[in-house]
């Protein structure tokens, strides 16, 4: 049993850490508060090849192992979680295309996606359907050698930059069960009738856009059907969300790490009653709790990632890591705010952003309550074992 990163992973982490400390940490608070899009940071991520994390090497990507994939999201989220969102949706989509796309689709899109020349996301959620994806209403009606798509998607990260945007649709709305009539279409941004109608205001998760996308009689060639076969869209999406949950778990670890870093420094530097507040037992207990939660979340996230690298089905493991790490991130952010006292509530300090960013981690890529049900069913059905 080895709890250490290998040399390649350690070098990758150190390179990312240096990039985050130089390019993200100094500007994150100012840019987040002003609503400025992080164009320069995106360009830096392109130069590091990070848009190719989930793209196989044969198409010009990094073909990163899943532990390295997690390291990327942990380090970037330590600097600014919203930036990780730009890379997260793109990577989930690339993974899905690499795993399920036709050879023609992969050859057409993956090389440019690997460099960030093209960017992408994934359009699953709708105004009336989030975790319950079988309840979507967006339809794709066959018309000759094309599909005609109508519907609305919500909370779509990278919507203003995605080209193509994979969109989950119902190609057979009458199918029972519903998932047998669901497919994914790769819709290009310049398609007539494809419109990004608004950016949705958010408590946190700033730096990347979250948008409403309206599709009105959008004509999509049949060659854009992911995998070339109808009725596999939900399975294609869900298999890709396994990596998405590793991504969210790792982002949570990054938030918790920053909460720890800020709290430790503040406890050493802030004085009260003639001594550093780190000398008070109440502060010590909170700081220790943050450290314990952080390291526990990190180990569970790396465990789930390593299981995926072993080539086993790991929907249970990724769900467990996502649930646990996301809840530790919120607990760590809350304790960090308490250690900072009134300053923790001030926009002049980093911890208030952590407190706003952390709650999303328990919602994104499947809510924690729903995922608990998924884990329990796997255990009861014998598909997963804990021993």
Rg (CA only): 21 Å
Number of helices: 11
Oligomer: single chain
* Number of β-strand runs: 8
Order of helices and strands: HHHHHHEEEEEEHEEHHHH
Mean pLDDT: 96
Runs in which pLDDT lies below 50 for 5 or more consecutive residues are: none
How many angstroms separate the termini? 15 Å
Enumerate the strands of the largest sheet in spatial order, edge to edge or round the barrel: 1-2-6-5
Secondary structural class: alpha+beta
Share of β-strand residues: 5-15%
* Biggest sheet descriptor: 4 strands, antiparallel
Question: Share of helix among residues?
Answer: 40-55%
What characteristic shape results from the CA principal axes? globular
Question: What features would you describe in this structure?
Answer:
The chain is α+β, with helices and mostly antiparallel strands and 387 residues long. Helix content is 50%, strand content 13%. The protein contains 11 helices and 8 strands. The chain has helices spanning 7-24, 28-34, 39-47, 66-79, 81-100, 103-115, 233-269, 281-309, 315-340, 351-357, 368-380; strands at 139-143, 146-157, 165-170, 182-187, 194-199, 210-221, 271-272, 275-276. The protein has a 4-stranded antiparallel sheet with strand order 1-2-6-5, covered by helices on one side. A two-stranded antiparallel sheet has the order 3-4. A hairpin with a 2-residue loop joins strand 1 (139-143) and strand 2. Helix 1 packs parallel to helix 4. Residues 231-380 form the Acyl-CoA dehydrogenase/oxidase C-terminal domain. This is Acyl-CoA dehydrogenase family protein. Its cofactor is FAD. It holds the Pfam family Acyl-CoA_dh_N. Keywords: FAD, Flavoprotein, Oxidoreductase.
């Amino acid at each position: 049993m080895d709890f250490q990163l290998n040399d390649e992973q350690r070098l990758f982490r150190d390179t990312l850490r240096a990039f985050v400390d130089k390019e993200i940490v100094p500007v994150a608070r100012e840019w987040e508060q002003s609503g400025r899009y992080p164009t320069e940071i995106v360009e830096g991520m392109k130069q590091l090849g990070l848009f190719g994390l989930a793209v196989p090497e044969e198409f010009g990507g990094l073909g990163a192992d899943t532990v390295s994939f997690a390291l990327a999201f942990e380090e970037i989220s330590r600097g600014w979680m919203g930036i990780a969102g730009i890379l997260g949706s793109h990577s989930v989509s690339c993974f899905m295309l690499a795993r399920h796309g036709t050879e023609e689709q992969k050859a057409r899109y993956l090389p440019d996606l690997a460099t960030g020349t093209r960017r992408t996301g994934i359009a699953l959620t709708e105004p009336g359907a989030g975790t319950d994806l079988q309840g979507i209403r967006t339809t794709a009606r066959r018309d000759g050698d094309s599909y005609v798509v109508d519907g609305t998607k919500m909370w779509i990260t990278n919507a203003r930059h995605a080209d193509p945007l994979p969109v989950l649709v119902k190609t057979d709305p009458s199918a029972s069960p519903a998932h047998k009539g669901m497919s994914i279409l790769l819709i290009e941004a310049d398609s007539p009738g494809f419109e990004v109608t608004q950016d949705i205001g958010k408590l946190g998760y700033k730096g990347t856009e979250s948008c409403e996308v309206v599709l009105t009689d959008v004509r999509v060639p049949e060659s854009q059907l992911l995998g070339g076969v109808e009725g596999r869209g939900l399975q294609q999406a869900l298999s890709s969300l396994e990596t998405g949950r590793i991504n969210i778990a790792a982002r949570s670890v990054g938030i918790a790490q920053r909460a720890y870093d800020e709290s430790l420094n503040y406890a050493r530097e802030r004085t009260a009653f003639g001594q550093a507040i780190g000398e008070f037992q109440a502060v010590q207990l909170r700081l220790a709790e943050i450290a314990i939660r952080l390291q526990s979340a990190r180990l569970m996230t790396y465990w789930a990632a390593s299981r995926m690298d072993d080539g086993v089905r790991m929907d249970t493991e990724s769900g467990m890591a996502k649930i646990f790490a996301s809840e530790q991130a919120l607990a760590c952010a809350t304790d960090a705010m308490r250690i900072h006292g009134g300053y923790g509530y001030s926009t002049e300090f980093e911890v208030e952003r952590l407190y706003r960013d952390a709650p999303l981690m328990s919602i994104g890529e499947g809510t924690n309550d729903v995922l608990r049900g998924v884990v329990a069913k796997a255990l009861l059905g014998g598909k997963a074992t804990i021993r």
